[in-house]
Amino acid sequence: MRFARALGLGGPTLEPQTRHVMDLEAWTRAWALVSLCGVGDSYTFGNDHNLFIYLRPEDGRFVPFPVDMDFSFVRGATSGLLGDRNLTRVFNLPANLRRFYAHVLDLIEVGFNPAYMGPWITHYNRFVPEQNFASITEYIRQRGNHAVATINAAGGNAPFTVLGPAQVTTAANLVTLTGTAPVTLHTLRVNGVAWPLSWSSIHQWTLQLPVAGATNMLELAGFDGRGRPLADAVATRTVVYTGPAVVPEGEVVFNEIMYHPAAANASFVELFNRSLNTAHDLSGWRVDGLGFTFPPGTSLGAGQYLLLAGDRLGFADAYGTGAPLPWAVYPGNLRHDGEVLTLLRPGPDAGEATVVNQVGYENRLPWPLAADGLGPSLQLIDPGQDNRRVANWAAAEPGQEVEPRWVQVIVQGTGSSSSLYLYLESAGDLYLDDLWLVPGTVAEAGVNAVRNGDFEAPLSGPWVVSPNHAASTLSNTIKRSGNASLHLVASSGGTTRASAIYQELSPALVQGQPYTLSFWYRQSTNGGPFTARLSGRGITVTVDPSPPASGPYSPGMANTVARELPPFPPVWLNEIQSRNLTGPTDRAGEREPWIELFNAGPDPVNLAGLFLAATIPPLQPWAFPPETTIEPGGYLLIWADGEPGESSASELHTDFRLGGAAGSVVLFRPGAQGAEVLDYLHYDSLAPNQSYGSLPDGEPYGRRLLAAPTPGSSNQTPPPPAIVWINEWMAANTFASGIADPADNRYQDWFELYNPEARDVSLQDWGLSDDPSRPFKYRIPAGYVVPARGFLLVWADEETGQNRPDRADLHVNFRLSQDGEAIALTRPDGSLADLVTFGPQSENVSQGRLPDGAATLQTLPTPTPRGANTGQPPAPPEFTAIHLLPSGSVRLTVRTQTGRAYRVEFTDALGPGDWQPLGEVRAADAMALDFRDPPAAFAAGFTAPQC
């Protein structure tokens, strides 16, 4: 149904939706084969059947398989290359038609030609002499020649060109290049990076890429579908950028997070470029928390959104064909109980990275609880404000009032005339700005055919105003960009030239050529709908300018909760101590709980109008006195002792009291829609005299137990984190190793953790993974401890259900690859405790550190799970005692080695014959094991232990 729904679409939604569900490279390749072979009994060629489709699970796209091609070479050699069904609508899109033609030419080159097929036809003629395949040779020649002629006539052999001058000077950092290319050009690389191209026809391309330096040398090189360079597809261009420095920090932000959708597999993360005029090159950027890295050739234009989805098909099922499509699928998972997402861009040196934006959410108050599985997403309210503040996020509810905002409209069509009409269809008013009409399919790419489309000059001249729009004027107060917008005012509804604001475009548009119309309008409930169109309706769009009803999510679109917020003061909760027994004292000489604030800004901050509380909910406010100020980079200590009568101008005391090992503190201000939480912290398991706070000062995502309380001064780094090593591993464990999982007696992958310290280390909330980009692929539950100078064995068997309090070993949700991979151990705060990588592994051979915890890794002659690594081979097992018991059974005692598994086998004769197991495999946890041979109908004549 997903596939059928996509094929049933039209207009501008057909291309992105079919690209979303179809592997178009595979489809155009398959149809090139079917078309060349003249198949007369296939879907789109003759009948509505003979189409096999496979849903590829790794990316959720549909791929075709040519089937039942027994009616080959029956269509005319000069018949059309494309069929007559709805797939042809998809293949006729310029980018897809290029792919189709390129595959046709490639198939002709590699095999569909008489020189290659002739010997095969002769060969198979010998098998069936009663049939004559000779005519096929002539069909292949004619069909190939016709295909080449058809492609050439359509412009498929156009030369590679780059239009415009060799050097361009611009104040905009998004550079647009246009040109022509033959259909054999598959990829265009700029300075070695492949950038996506837009195609207005099968040979006319447009490329947009951001630049950042003052002088940018661009070397262009084209390649075919096999990655071979095209000799004539090379060019150079120089771009001189005169605009301001390109700084993405604070401009590219996390804008919406669906971390726990009500629909299955429908999670997503949305980025937004809040800049009005600067594009950003995202090549090599990564999103920590999603395990995703942007590939080269990725950019985000001014005012644009970029969606990353957790699952391609789950996203399509949840949000429908009307929603913007995700740009990519991320491999990680958004945690339901909270996550910190960090957007990083590469630094100048290898391994360096700069934080562009960071946000952490939780599924508990003060975060909106409705986002935790009830349908809504978390939406950013004001992209111009710090999105680390809870007050800047909301979970939209249906019916919630939405403030008007600017919305962009983009529509594609063809040149039907050169008369452009703008009108409201009923009396009312609307603000318009940045109206563009350009050739091709990329909005605002190229020369704007509309004069004064930014409405920076008087309307008179290019624009003609009809009587019913006579009150229209330029607005200098409400505008999207520049100095003015068009305030379109209609006394009655318009329909055509005589009741519109219109312009005769000059130079005239090319009839039938693709064009893209784009504009911005400010939402309004006063009149509408609004129509913009060409005479002849080659391009027409009608929009309802009313703000949309508030919805629970808005992927790829402006957030329904968006509104401007007052600036957030740069003040943070920095440190708290709830049980002060030996620390600082107040003026009365009492050791009381305290809270510390930090001003991270460059200016003094007055705290009048801000409040503290220690309950969520309800927020029981304690107000700062109006004269309270924090100096830049300064600290303010507040005694949270419930003794407000002790307050003075120099010493503040709240009317609530912190106490106990766990609790919360909230810093907030009143807002238009209730309390706005500026900062909060939850603390737990806080021992007497311990403090909890930020590292570094003012950092909301670096909070932890501090090394020592530091009231009124910079927080101190805590003691070094616990050290635990990945000490040994076996990625190809079979029966011959003798090392079985006691939970099920199966021989599975394992690795061992080692604690070199003199204290036990709890692994609760630590992460284990075989993918370093997903450090918390498995989060260790409570109850698992690596004892002092001891070991913990971990079974990499994907059987976490075997974890039980009565079993010492840990089971994780991944396996190890015998071909080689990595194992990562991560502390709860996200710091890496250890990482090992290994290559191909031999069966039953372990690798690890020798001695335990050493920096060097080597192959170990003796696997020693749960025990110290050794360079000596294991001692062979041997019987140390044999006892005949009163019951008639025999007890055999075998010397063993802790951590290894043993089995005793028996046979009735020492001649040829099978040895049978005497009982189950048993793991040794001591120096010896006892096995019993019960009475049976036969005697076990001979026995031997194995390990």
Short description:
The chain has 947 residues and is mainly beta. The protein has eight helices and 65 strands. The strands form 17 sheets. Strands 21-20-15-14-24-25 form a six-stranded mixed β-sheet, with no helix packed on it. The protein has a six-stranded mixed β-sheet with strand order 43-42-37-36-46-47, with no helix packed on it. It has a six-stranded mixed β-sheet with strand order 55-54-49-48-58-59, with no helix packed on it.
How would you describe this structure to a colleague?
- The protein is mostly beta strands and about 950 residues long.
- Strands 21-20-15-14-24-25 form a six-stranded mixed β-sheet, with no helix packed on it. It has a six-stranded mixed β-sheet with strand order 43-42-37-36-46-47, with no helix packed on it. The protein has a six-stranded mixed β-sheet with strand order 55-54-49-48-58-59, with no helix packed on it.
- The longest helix has 20 residues, at about 135-155.
- The radius of gyration is 36 Å and the shape is flat.
- The model is unreliable at about 935-940 (pLDDT under 50).
